[in-house]
């Protein structure tokens, strides 16, 4: 794998990805020539140490424990309850180099989180309980700009997008340690997370849209991204057509919004 800087121009996906459209999961995130941004949420003692040292560590950090990084800010807001869930009050924006994200993914396996396909032979993924120290999991994306309809204000969450997938990357053992040692920068975006939550909690759709427009300049510009990996690995991780991508495409089929 060669080391190179990415163009800051919009990434143009390979023809086979463009032709398949929503049937191929897409790694979407904010990235530039230097690297890719991912998100995590922690309790204050872990997050504050990380912000001060621009790395993970300290007395309460467990480097060998499975940790999940998420390039989608919308999915991070869903998972952390806009930074309101216990143990996830601090939402962090973390930058990794292109080489680091490729190195981590090269040791990952695509795990099957779909109960309907778990255990089937030839589905291109390992069971959810497996996957070793590195796992890639695809879940319905969450819309950063609109909340789920029909929910009460206190139970608000970003709208579920069943035709678009969001990638989560699980790291344990040596991969978790490598991740912690290769971070380029860490930023606290907890206030922004809560502001999005407040906007999503407004009663009228037009008020939500107006509040989100006010926040737009501070939100990440998430674009399609293809890691610098061999084609065979991209197929294995469901980023190019193959059994894994077909399996992931079955999530929510027929009930998309």
Question: Your description of this structure?
Answer:
- With 257 residues, the protein is an alpha+beta fold.
- The protein is 30% helix and 25% strand.
- The protein has helices at residues 15-20, 44-53, 73-80, 98-106, 173-181, 190-200, 205-215, 231-236, 243-249, and strands at 28-29, 35-42, 67-69, 90-97, 109-112, 126-127, 134-147, 158-171, 183-188, 223-224.
- The strands form 3 sheets. The chain has a 5-stranded mixed β-sheet with strand order 3-8-7-5-6. A 3-stranded antiparallel β-sheet has the order 2-4-9. A two-stranded antiparallel sheet has the order 1-10.
- Helix 6 runs antiparallel to helix 7 (205-215).
- The longest helix has 11 residues, at 190-200.
- The chain is globular, with a radius of gyration of 18 Å.
- The termini are far apart.
Contiguous uncertain segments of 5+ residues: none
Q: Give Rg in angstroms.
A: 18 Å
Mean pLDDT: 85
DSSP E strands, number: 10
Strand order of the largest sheet: 3-8-7-5-6
Proportion of strand residues: 15-25%
Major sheet, described briefly? 5 strands, mixed
DSSP helical segment count: 9
SSE order, as H and E? HEEHEHEHEEEEHEHHEHH
End-to-end CA span: 39 Å
The shape, in one word, is globular
Helix content: 25-40%
SS-derived structural category: alpha+beta
């Amino acid at each position: 794998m060669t080391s190179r800087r990415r163009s800051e121009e919009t990434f143009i996906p390979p023809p086979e990805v463009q032709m398949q459209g929503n049937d191929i999961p897409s790694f979407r995130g904010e990235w530039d020539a230097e690297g890719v941004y991912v998100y995590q949420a922690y309790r204050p003692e872990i997050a504050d140490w990380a912000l001060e040292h621009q790395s993970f560590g300290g007395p309460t950090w467990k480097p060998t424990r499975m940790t999940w990084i998420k390039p989608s800010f919308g999915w991070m807001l869903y998972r952390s309850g806009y930074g309101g869930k216990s143990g996830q009050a601090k939402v962090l924006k973390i930058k990794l180099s292109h080489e680091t994200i490729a190195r981590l993914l090269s040791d990952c396996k695509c795990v099957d989180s779909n109960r309907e396909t778990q255990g089937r032979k030839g589905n291109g993924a390992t069971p959810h309980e497996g996957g070793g120290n590195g796992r890639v999991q695809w879940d319905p994306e969450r819309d950063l700009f609109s909340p789920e309809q029909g929910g009460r204000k206190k139970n608000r969450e970003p709208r579920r997008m069943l035709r678009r997938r969001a990638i989560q990357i699980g790291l344990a053992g040596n991969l978790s340690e490598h991740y912690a040692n290769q971070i380029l920068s860490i930023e606290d975006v907890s206030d922004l997370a809560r502001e999005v939550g407040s906007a999503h909690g407004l009663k009228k759709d037009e008020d939500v849209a107006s509040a989100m427009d006010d926040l737009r300049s501070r939100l990440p510009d998430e674009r399609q991204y293809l890691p610098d990996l061999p084609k065979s690995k991209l197929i294995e991780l469901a980023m190019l057509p193959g059994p894994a991508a077909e399996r992931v495409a079955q999530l929510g089929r027929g009930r998309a919004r």
